[in-house]
Amino acid sequence: MKQEAVGLFEKIFIIWFRDLTSWIWEEGNVVRKTAIALFVLGGVNVFLLTGSLKDFFRLKEASMYDIPSILYAQTEKGKFEPIAEYYKFSRIPVDIDILKKEKPSLSQDNRNKVIQCFLSTEDNQFYSHSGIDLKGIARAFVVNLIAGKVKEGASTITQQVARLKFLSVERSIARKAREAWLAFLLEMAYPKDKILEVYLNEIPLGHGTIGVGAASRFYFRKELHDVTWGEAAILASLTTRPTQFSPLTNPISSINKVRVVFKKLIENGRMTVTDAEKEYTALMDYYSNLNRSPNDSAFSDRLNRFPYVTEYIRKNLLRSIGKDRLYNGGLKIYSTIQIKHQTEAEKAMFPALQAQTLESNQRAFRNIDAFDDNFGAAYEVIADLYDLPEFKFKISRTERTFRSAFQEDIRDTFTTLNYLTGDDSLGDFLDNNYANQSTQDHLLPVEGSLISIRPNTGYITALVGGSGFRSDNQQIRPFQAFRQPGSAFKPVLYAAAMDYSGKNPDPEKNVTPATLFADSPLQYLMEDGDEWAPENYSSEYSGFILLRKALEQSKNSVAVRVLEQIGLSNIMSTLQGLLQLPGRDIPYNFSVSLGSFEITPYELTRAYAALASGGKTVNPISVLYVENQEGKIIKDFRNEFDESDRKQVISPEAAFLVTSMMEDVIREGTGKAALSYGLSRKAYGKTGTTNNFRDAWFVGYTPELVTSVWFGYDVGTISLGRGMTGGRLAAPVWGRFMARSLDNEPKAEFSWTTDLKITKRAVCTMSGKLPGGQCRELIEEYFIPSTVPKDVCSDHGSQWMSTETSSSVRQEKPKQTTVVAKPPGTEKIPKPIKKKKKKSVFSGDEDIDY
């Protein structure tokens, strides 16, 4: 049985078709009614193919542009200033109303010269047709038929706007039909001037420019309202094939096309022949002075003051905002970057990296004769078969060998000898040779990293990712370079150890700044049978040494013994909490104490930021918030983390102790070079150098800022050169950056030091124990109360002397007190206290030679 239609559309269509059939076959002119019905059906068909009800709702999009997004950074006064633009194509929207009219006018049309040029070449009847120029279509059909090819287009400016805004560039009848339909709708929805404005802002004009505003700035380095008639003609000549007619790519083709534009202006009565010739001749100066690369693009002209920062933030925003919105949404992105900090970071890093490239002198490719030696004979045969050019060097092998030997060995020897002889001519020659030496072609660049973070907020204020952001050097090394931290890891290890001792006191195993360790050679037999013998950098050993002094002098053997004494399993979770390495494990062996595992500069800086925050983790961010074109915040990164997300990994007391120890590293130890640029505020940090001088580090902080500096080659096996330590390379750069970036900022104190429970006791500098009667040199040291040493020093004099004076030692033993410690740096650890010598029966016998 036949089923009745159930769909609403089907029912309506069936009823409508029945009524139409009845109307046709009723009395009357059947042929005429049939023709009318077919015409209506045809019109409905055309509408369904070319139009859509959605088109009516899309018309408002025609006046909306894809606007570049702007990245802002903070000035010293706290105001935001643009530092970069994000876009795929350069567009500078132009309001047609601000384009001034031409005075005196050359014709009845006194519109701006740019408008007249585009109207003459693209659609002279624009202001008289209704979106579709039927006369133009007929004319183009005849011209193309006679020429036997497509020589003239028939699209009006309105049709081009429809295609640019809503359609593809596909050549088909269906696309042209939709183009005409949409042009008709645009004419109904917008005035002529608005349609022309959209066209001028949407037309691609080559080299990554969209619209006349961006093209004017790219081609002529001027704003649109300042262009001449000739320059306006160049813009109008680029509408069909921008690449072919670009003055940068094909200046001859461009000149010829511009001549056509002037002819159109003359034909349409907008210019006289005399005026056209005058403007055309004046334009030739532009071509004769044109000295730009054909590959130049507007993308390279975009605002981009700090490329490493721009690229890092771009990658992050792509994940959270999306490509379309970032490049075309006209967003305002407010970053945490401080312009002064970033400027000083680049001033400190770039010259230092360039100088170190010369100093390290590592060639990118040394055996340049390898091809000639191994394949030279075969190349001759291949060249004869395939008619290849002759393979040869610009200079001979002998000359290349001499130049290499001279630059690497002989020249330095000559320079040394010249210092002794003082020959002026030889000195001038050597100086000139040094100055003119090309380093980029044959020397591997030393790369580096600098990243700076506010410890109280996590705001990233400066970021340098290498020796210079180029097409072949775009790695953001603070986040992408996995390197061994070396001794720069020791403060993290010691903080974890002292924190564990404070929570689990054991007089035999406590680790404090005054704990005595043996600084002597070590040797371990590994499970695979290999031997591991960690050594101090200097290969010298000091015997027994206090932990504070061991960190100051960066003693490797002591770091291993600290880990051995405290137990890696006891502090592993603390180390993981400080470093925050999700999905990565810290190796479970003693070499961890020497920073043998790989982390990024960002991860190590973040761990130091936790120390500078009193043991609380820090969640760094680089963008504060993002606004749309209307000024509404669409993404607020400040809300991503709050105080509850910060975990207390170690106690504030442990953070205080390691901070005070790092002050000595800068004041007296391996980091003294950090003060070479006049850093006037208390600072705390640690150097780091890895095996064979492959990496040079300095990481440190003040209450205001945490910063790390790293030097090294991208290939991790290449040495920077003997003696290239963190103290020599990274510390001065760190000091220069910190001194100059903070010079106008008020000095601050650590906010977390107000309620510390720290005990301050005098201890013997030889043993780290409570002073005995014979202890002559004492030092006041900080302790977590539960780790204060209980033993009295008996390392001076004989045992009977210790026994004889033990009662007096007990009587003089000071009462243990818990004090509120001042921030590190505000109260200096005093120099060793020399006690008065007690007179005894042996007084005066010090000179006896035993």
TrEMBL record:
Residues 831-840 have a biased composition (Basic residues). Residues 111-264 form the Glycosyl transferase family domain. InterPro entries: Beta-lactam/transpept-like, Glyco_trans_51, Glycosyltr_51/Transpeptidase, Lysozyme-like_dom_sf, PBP_transglycosylase, PCN-bd_Tpept. It is found in: Membrane. Residues 796-809 have a biased composition (Polar residues). The keyword DNA damage does not apply. The keyword DNA-binding does not apply. Keywords: Carboxypeptidase, Cell shape, Cell wall biogenesis/degradation, Glycosyltransferase, Hydrolase, Membrane, Multifunctional enzyme, Peptidoglycan synthesis, Protease, Transferase, Transmembrane, Transmembrane helix. Pathway: Glycan biosynthesis; Cell wall biogenesis; peptidoglycan biosynthesis. GO terms for biological process: cell wall organization; peptidoglycan biosynthetic process; proteolysis; regulation of cell shape. Its EC number is 2.4.99.28. In the N-terminal section; belongs to the glycosyltransferase 51 family. In the C-terminal section; belongs to the transpeptidase family. This is peptidoglycan glycosyltransferase. It comes from Leptospira ilyithenensis.
